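Chapter review: from sequence to fold.
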Amino acid sequence: MDTDGSAEILTEEKRAEFAALFREFAEYFPDTPQGRNHIDAYGRDRMSGRENFKGIVQAAERGEDVTDRVLLELLPHADTEANRSKGAWIHVAPAVQSDVNVGSKASVDQTGGLAEGGRCPVALCYSL
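The token string follows.
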């Protein structure tokens, strides 16, 4: 238990193991071909993500439903033919390997809030 009474998330043993693995990664990975490719891609991927965000905010301000665009263009997707064909944000460090769908539509009002009953994730972007 931590001093505030909550359960410890990471034990000292796991912290030490993580630190050792991270040091090993930081020492060797950046100088590999895969590491250099990864580092080189960050600038391109960031620029693409910023453009996606800008376009989504503009669409939301016009009152468009941007639910699917948020999931498709703001979550980093794996570089697959399927993801490329549907216009997903392709990123060197993907968080999404398959299809993401919230299952409901919502609209954003002019203040960036959710319309009555909506659950659109773009509202999170307005709070960033």
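Two observations follow directly from the output. The two ends are 32 Å apart (CA to CA). Residues 33-61 form the longest helix (29 residues).
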